## 1
Amino acid sequence: MQLRVSSIIRVIWCCMAVLALHLPSAKAWEFAHGDRDNTGFANVATSPAGKGSVSVPGLGTFAPGAGPVVANDGTVYLGTTEGKLIALHADGSLFWTRDLSPRQQIVTSPAIAEDGSIFVVGVRKVRKYGTDAPEDMTFAATLYRFNNTGALLSQTAFPKRDNFGPAAFGFPNVWRSGNAEAVMVPVYHRHPIGLTTRLIAFSLTGSVLDDKVVGSTAPDTIQGAGPDTAVLTCLIPIYNVVADKCGYNPTRVPNFLVHIPPVPGVGIFTQAGGGTPFILVSDHYKTLVGYTFSNQRLTEVLRVHEKDFFMRTPPMPMPDSHTLIGLESISRDDGIEKANGRGRIIFAGPNASKIGPVALDTTVQAGATRMADGRIALVDGYGNVVILKDGKLFSSMEGAGRSMASAAASLSHIFVSGENGFVTFDANTLAEVSRFNWVGGGLNPPVIGPKGHVYAIASNILFVFPPKLTASTIRQPQSGLAIAPTAEATNLQEKEYKPPMTAGGNRLFACEELDQDDCGKGDHKDISLAWCQKQGYLKAKDFDVDSKKVTAETLDGRFCSKNKCKVFDQIVCAN
């Protein structure tokens, strides 16, 4: 039986816990994982995700791990692999868009500075010798700064080193002390026997202030073992493949510049009593490093090396100055290191007191989330949610399919994105309170706005879940993007598409694979559901499929490679 607690008592209880644990007071979700600390927590009350949702299709393609950020005024910013920075109003309607330089992709979340300016990283692959061989490719990256009306304030090329890089695949964070701010971005460069991770500090105007080595994928001199190719592919995915060894391998992943899993970013922590903020960053391999920043220089104060584990998650500084980070254990076979799928949570410095590690049955690729009462929520590769309390396993809940997306926590709820749905749990009792079915989720983290809106992405569609369904919730879209309110919000209970046609005027392909191999009802069901949700409906009520000699196109713009293709003759969408 679900425990019922009055909303007033719950909010008072949660707020007292927030004060006791020094959780951030800001309500805005200005960085990839909520705040500088990567807590994934928003100090607002929310409603369960489901009723009155609005879908926003046609924005573009989102790289795995890249989610929106939200400013104090409720403006939502998100970037696409087409190199477009998009600003939306809180309800999902268009504010403005800006294009980066040609061929640049946005593969991480943006970051918002104190003055409201938005920092976004554009990165592109460069063919050094006219081939696609990994050894003949490098990367170029640029840091852009826009103001909140979309004006470009600055753009700065990342410094180059050696033969590879800069591959700026980690999300940016903004260090702040007093009135001083600096943008921290991790990057990767190739070296003769592996990869080097560096942390670059930029001024708000784009000047490079400092550049430090975090770690390197050199062979382990103690064990005499080095990483195999798949490990390097997971560390910095430069190949156009998705390795099963990397964890969650989704069934529908376009040819992104960045693949699975996303590269962890930077965590920044200021102790409750003030003082110099700590900057925590891992190399996504075996090393976690802590820095302080003064006189525009980075100073190393902490270095943790885990010789028997790979570091998988972004570092999350805790209120007691420990740093939580997720690991995956290593198996060694003939001197080759391989990830074996078993997970572990450790609590590193700068706090020097020892806290024992927490063993997990599976690996966690997604960043940890800190709840209002101090408990920790972790989403594993299967989409299950593991709760830690006082550094120990406390509880677990079933999600909605595979996931590499961090949970988002409010005062009242926990939101979890899975491949097959979006689940809301009660933050106090941990009971499931709603489940919104979709396809293609689990790749991008959900976020929470300062007014209680919840934003989530599935199949490259942004879903906006309002704090409360009212007549004013639905806002007419402005020019440029179409917002599709759900059937419940518009009182449209059902619609038949006979046949459904893509934006390019082609028949909708009914299979996942372009060669139609192993195509069956499972494919038809998933694609029809994705089509209906793109139109703003909750489910696909019915569909008919036939093989025809037509041009057949998928929802993400690919074409059937056969003479006769399976296409939908009809899809019936319903609430």
## 2
Amino acid sequence: SVACGRHGTQRSSTLLRISHLTVRNYRSLEQLDMEVTDYTALVGANGAGKSSVLYALDWFFKGQDLDESDITDHDGSVAADSIEVAVTFSDLTTADRQALGQFGRGDLARVRRIWRRDGKGTKIVGRALQGPGFVGVRNVSSVPAMRTAYRALAQTTKGLPRLAGNVPKSDITAALDEWESQSTNLGALVEVEDVDASDLFGTNGTFQNRIRLVLIPAATDMPNQLSGATKGSALSELVGAVIADAGVRARDEWLSAHRADLQELNERVRAGVQASVTAQADRINSTLAGMVPDARVNFVPMVPEWEPRGDVAVETSVTLDGATTEITRQGHGVQRAVMIALFQSLIENPAQSEGAAHSASGEPDTGPALVICIEEPEIYQHPVRARSFGRILANLSERPGAQVVIATHSPYFVSPGQFESIRRFRIDGGRSSISIASVAEICRRSGADHAAVRKVVEKQIPTTFSEGFFADAVVLVEGDTDRVVIETLAARIGTPLDEHGIAVLVMGGKPAFRIPYALFGSLGVTTFVVVDGDAEGASRKYSGAQQSAQRAQAEASNRQATDNVTAWLPGSAARLGELPYEFGSSSVVANDFVIWRDDLESELAAWPTFVAALESTGCRLRQKNALAYRAAALDADIAGMPYTLTVALRAI
């Protein structure tokens, strides 16, 4: 897959990043394949699997304990025997390749973490690039057999050194590694699946120093997430990613300057321990000889190398109105504000830029890369603050080495620039699935060109479309009065549309329907269209006898606009009226759309109590006063509602 940035284009930076995620049998995610961009927004209904993606990523990096309740359909209806999360990494630097070893020799690195329900625990495997036939040597269980296999391989592999005698296993593997690392041999390497990659993770895992994931859950334990003293907290992870490296550099500098002193200390400790255990063994053996002739005990001291230790930790307190308290004593709003401020600081003054090291090739090494996963970033936030936080996260995702993945219900976290990074989740039969809307796909569905689609996306996402991304279904209408009448009447007959997850979106006219219809279709959002046929529009506008030419021209234009819409509307069954629809025919209500013969006002004109209620506000039909229309829809006698409106609301 192509590593795409937040605008769907090739990322310009060359820092390690996640480009693809595969999840199998984790909670509702029975089979998920998803491209991950610099900013990835997971949207959709509650329980559709958005948060499960974040927690699956967190498990991949940290390997927390799982149990059978985490398996898809764990009630036994599907006998899944394992959970698997696979991550593909791209944009590898020289330092990344060194840390990944045989797993980082290609353009992409793919690693899988697998948990088995049979009690065999967790294993981590990766796709490696090895020399031809090398896997057969590495997989030999005994050292003598490995020597034999190696020598046979060396006979046919140019440049592989001959190893004589009883060489240890480490010399054999080192020779294989050295051959594979030579640039002249890269073209001969072959892919080998399921190679043990457990050394990449864990306490001493080298790869964890190249990329770190921080998960900020929506749970109410935010104080723990903000406590630097809490192991695994969001703050400690962030500090570890962008601040603690300063401590590592300082320690390395000290070691470089005092290596001789440290070596002398280690030698003195070993000599002292050896002298002590030798003396103790002599005393014991002098006694033991009288009890068991020819018996002797030996003590072998195991003295670890002394190294300076000490991890950086941060304690968090907040001063508010002159009073300083622990973060745990502050409200959720303040706690989230602290987290937001921390993200803001990463944008404005990233610690990675300070004292950046360089790899052996001379390229900047600003690692580790940072992946921030946030569940419901909008919670505990005033709408204005939420909008600001959305902008902060978007800006953070544009920094080299930073990716943001959020699960959200808020339109404040989806902007036009992030459009192609939307992953819309839905759930069917307990299983999650996702839909992605690319500009290319919308062009294909709508027949519009790239520029036209981009223009609609840029204009409508902040104002109209965003609510539709979070809806179960949308109704596309021409104007505000159409929207308020449909919403109000639906509520009056006992089926409020918002209770059914249905959003009514205003398009502004028939020509503006096609691209949004294709957009929501790409995202898997059920879409219903309500459009005017405008059969009488020309007659109303040009009613005088002297205006016949203008009337004919306007009628031809209205006919063409209506025919353009009916040409792309889906095949559907009629509930009222006849299909296929022809310009000037009676209103038709189908399962997927409504075409008024003229417009909504023509239907409302047959409802006397609505007209009277509207006129009591000082407004008349077609004056397009949304507030007056809403008031009239609330006050009119619902029993007199025209049948076409009743059928249309039922269809919606």
## 3
Amino acid sequence: MDIFLIDAIGPFFRDYRKQRINWSKIPFHHLQTDPERRRLQFDRIARDMEQFAGRVSSVGYNAVSLDDVAHLAPDDWLEVEINAIIEIYQEEYRKLFKILKSHGLQIYLTMDVLSFTPMLKSMIGASFSKGLQFITRQLETIFSTFIAVDGIILRIGECDGNDVKGDFQSELFLRNAVGVNRLIRNLLPLFEQYDRAMILRTWTIGAHRIGDFIWHHDTTAKVLKGIDSFHFILSMKYGESDFFRYLPLNKHFFKFKVRKIIELQARREYEGCGEYPSFIGWDYHRYAQQLKEAENMAGISVWCQTGGWVPFNRLSYLEPLGIWNELNSYVSLKIFKHGWSVEEAVRSFCTEINCPDSTAMLELLELDDAVIKDLLYIKEVAQKKLFFRRVRIPPLLTVYWNNIFINYSTRIILLSLVKDPEKTLGEGKAALKKIKRMKEIAGDLGLPAEDITYMEDTFKILALARRFYFLPASDEERTKIKKAKHRYKKRYPKTFRPRYRIKTNYDPTTLSMNRLGLMFRFALRTKRGYRIIDYLFTLHLLGTCYRVVVWINPKLIPEFARKHAMGIGTIFR
């Protein structure tokens, strides 16, 4: 491995405060172009980038990723006023690139295929040849203008969310494996000519035929057909879904011979984003051991800031509150770069932060790992392998980003999946007790014990929710949840600290266990391969049915599912 990459978007989020922040990309609409305000803002970004670059390079990272090609490549097909803004960004990015290079860091720019403006959309439409023509010009501009840029990270399976604002809006331009392969074949000679790396991400969210790229062997094989170049690297998340626990290592690391990068997440977007510890060391060590058998591993890509639509706003490597994410980033690097054990990496981290007792720290992290796995996740559900259309069902069903779902629909789904509710309740109860010991250790070590208290208060809600899911329905349980929710909101007002949203709904559902079981057998499968019923209905007609239902009554789909990120409708494309 020679690429140890970490995302460097954090400096762009200083003072960017919203009730819900899209952490998937730099908020370019927040950047100032007025001369006076621009100078103040970008000078601050530069200072933060200096601090960030110094710290990550001292840890051992040798490369960073930054957004993005679209905002740095002017073109005749773009509006005049947008080209003028791009020239401003170019000027400011040159200063940032100089800072990063001074710390010995390689620079990789992200790129969505494809980001549109209204004028560009009218020029390209859905034409592959015109899109390819434009992308080629973009890359030639970047490579010739910015010698400091070492490579491009292409994202083809996800686009900007419904709430993204700004001059550019990315869309899912490529819809099948043949189109992706065609793009790679046409662009690779350009990367080879300029001696830059093309990093292609397999991440997809189930949309269109390319939607199973992340896990389906045949789709990946079609994408990679005829690709044999040192300048090409395939970048894959460690599992067949997003950054969740309980996922086995993606088998594609062993099946394809191209150079590969494994994507890891230090700022756990589904596990609190660093508001409380969510240590991932032992899982990552297991992946690292398995990858010793994989060919052509080029490196790792660690996300210390990127990911999620959440109010949580801690900045890694820029403030003391980033400690839990920095811990994950540090341990991840030491495991994959130096082959250290988790224990060696944690002890070294303790030395870095002057923590007096690494043995106690390891105890804290062991407890934390157990609490996350046994209470944030419902183990029996998380261990199941389930697929719907082109996606693997996430192992975490009751919590999504900063939303905790407590309703009868969730209850019925969980009752249909969990065969031993009593054991599940016991696991949650035991996990909650572990947090008390975590608080004691954190206090003794001078670590932010208030983060563990916040974790305890949040996870008490999860424990109550679990009782609602698996015990007979009663007014008493609903009353307990209502009171706990009130205390939680009072203790953590939005002006004081970002918190979880506890979304309760006790309206009975008309869905019976028998009907739900029938629906599950029809729509879900336990194997990766598609069934005849999938080809006949699930992959095609079901998408049409969804669009008809939404057209008749959009409110049948919860607002959260419709409006945040790309919207649930994406997986029905």
## 4
Amino acid sequence: MAGYERSPDVQEVTKRYDESYGTHSRFCKFFERNEAAYRGFLNPRSNAAKWRHALHPPYALNLIETVVASTTEQGLLMGVKPSPKVNPTLEEAKAMLGQAESVEHLLRHEYRVDDMDEKQRPLALCAAIGGTGIGKTYWTWAEGPSTRNAVVDREVYDGFGNVIATVPTLEQITETKTTVDHSTTEIVDPRDFIIHEGAWALQPTQPGGAQYVIHRCWYSIEQLRLWEASGFIKNVDDLSVSRDQADEYLSRDKTIFGMNKRKDLVEVLESWCFERGQVHRTMVGNRCVLLREKEASPFWHGEYPFFTASITPGLFSPRGIGTMELISELQEMMWELGNQRLDVVELIANAITLIRSDVDDPESFDYFPGARWQVDDPSQVQYLVPPYQLAGLTLEAEQLLKGDLQNVTAAAPFTSGTETATVDQKTATGASIVMNAAQQSMAAKKWQFQKGLAREAEQRIKNLQQFITEDKLIHIVGHDGAVAFRSLTPRDIEGEYVVEIEPMGESLMRQERRAEALQLSQVLAQMAPLAQAMGTPINMQEVLKWALKMWDIKDADRFFSQVQSPAVAGMGQGGGGEGVPGAASLPSELAGQNLGITAGSAIDASSPSAAGGISGSPVTALQRALTMGGGANNV
């Protein structure tokens, strides 16, 4: 702005921005190129666009969505554990142990209120495209008019102005109240987040932490005026005569989206720096107007209010490696080969006719199936025969590229059926080997990404401890979906805590627990006859009760009848007998008979019927015992 003297704070922020502009611009171009490839955008200057066919199906989109779906987890559970950084007293340690569950319930309540599940996808998508997803944690609060229907008592007057009665009436009431008051996380566009070029890590308290970070925000002038009215910022009117910075990004957004996403918005540089052992903040509008002077950070946690989440963290850098970085060139190769193959197929299906130049009437040769051409010499007219083998070669190369796309992303690696140099993925064993490796790779990516979410949760807990100054009512969702309410005081969440990632979501844990219970119950049922024969019977009723508890069934007794079959009434008692071990506890009609465990008498193994008399299977033993004994209604 001409004639406007920049304050020292503005000069400091713009100097840092200008110093980082070159490096950050290269990252922005890298991110935008990967985003275009993710959407299947074909660059007109690409080799794939030089063929007659210029098709560009978004192969990468499906693979990236698979990685994102495998990385995020709806209903994410975070375990909260006490973790004091200095030696606490015994009373403080006991208090934190008792309060950890309250902090965990509060954290889940804030996740539900803030729609944290919905924010996982854009965070993971930024990480898959550009290498790093960036989030900003802070406290959101807003107050404004609220209109509602209410029943009020309207007075009824007589002719003399005296109140003779009141009538309940439904009326609209407008009042000023707090509309938003909770912790929140905002997903930041990586192109609007500038990190100190020499940083190894994001937080200043870490080794090699960033000396400063700059968040480039975009607000409407009305939003800024509202903040100015509340006293948060100043000098908003000076922005109207400053240069608009949105035009700098016009060409980028129109390339993919066909619109200017920053139209009529004001650029605000929110600079965070680490000086003299403390984090400071400065806000500058349009790179020349000081909106908020340099001040100490409003957050008590002593860190930048940002966190990063990467699927594949980088080496000595806060930025990671994106999945699109691995497959963008493979997708370009597939587009080029595919378009080349389609051109060859089109040329074969619509062959070019070569007609000798001395032919009098070339137009007389009608081109249709079954046409007859009369020529003096067959060489007068003939087809141009293209190298049709190229169609098969490119098709094979495309299949190999599809396998490479799936392998490098660990997304369903064996579905293409392609072979590698070491593993034949067409066999069950080869598919199992490759799939196990892919699952381990995907699990490692998921763990790395969720570590970023754990860092977000720790900052959120610090904000909760800072901004909750009175009793807070939270809702708790139990395992069976039941909702309960609980009141927490600021003292209930005091202390130092660390957030640990639960192995999987609650629904997946429940499914795995039930599957394991069913599997173990089946194994114990098969072993029951053998254990009975050995004199160590298994109490199957207790086994079944335990399995039912895994299905959240508390009154398991209603599944068991009080009337027992005489054939199996004594199977759980053990004992000994002459024909079969444990025969003393069997019904008399079964005593001495061969139940498939051991023979009551010698049996000729060479006899054709020997197979029906000897069996080592415990299932066969149980089946024969039940068959020969019959049920209570068959006696």
